TrEMBL record:
It comes from the Bacteria. Keywords: Hydrolase. The keyword Hydrolase applies. It is an enzyme of class 3 (hydrolase). Its EC number is 3.8.1.5. It comes from Fontibacter flavus. NCBIfam families: PRK03592.1 (NF002938). This is Haloalkane dehalogenase.
Amino acid sequence: MSNPISEKFPFQSHYIGVENTNIHFVDETTKEKADTVFLFVHGNPTSSYLWRNIIPYTIPYGRCIALDLVGFGKSGKPDIEYTFQDNIKYFNSFVSKLNLTNIILVVHDWGGAIGFNYAKYHPENIKGIVFMETFCKPMEWKDLDILTRFVFKKFRDNKTGQKWNGKYNAFLRFILPMSINRKLTEKEKLYYFSPFKTIADRKPIIKFPQELPFKGEGTLNESIAEDYFNWLKKSSIPKLLLYANPGVQIQSKEIDLYKSVFKNLTTAFIGNGKHYIQEDQPDKIGEAIEQWYLLNW
């Protein structure tokens, strides 16, 4: 049964020094000794706040950690470029600093790319992977509708991207609310907007669209995405794909592909949703993760 979607973030904040900054995270469990670590990884332009209504479903089964990626949420904003490679470095260092093992990755958007890359190189630390609305392979322009193609080509232009996502804060003001079915409350908006008050604060939001790995562009990011896609196809680690209708990054074409090429994959439909499905269907997401976990372990 679905509960009202709560705007509260009832978790204690923790910080750890990573590279040249501090990374903020929450660390919750009800178990005296938790062998399993549920590691929640968000994308652009959100934070650990995205997972607030899903974490309670996994707390009975392990240690639940949700971090704010570098430059996001309450994490520090060091003077870096915020490339995909930068995010990989800070995320990997975070996991290493906390000495996390037996991890079930729960990932969304860029969190998927960052998490998949980690799993490829550290499979011994990964117990399972839950993914939703993320890119498991290099993206293709032809798969985007005309409006999305137009907007993201503007975002990827250095000058226009700086203006739209820097000066006008377009990703937060327009893309985020347009990608959620319900209307966010003022308190929810404050959680998402408060880390990005100035143009300088918005550097991570500006950079992520420019870093998207598109097929045929010959970039390092395309190569990274191709590599972790090939690994996902070979790995027998249990995987759970959560998808919504109509979805954005994972629609029927992607669902059919992943069903055909990923080993040990379970899929679950969680209802109506666009991209930030955690803000529309948190209970169904939490229930699906819980059921999958109980069936596998």
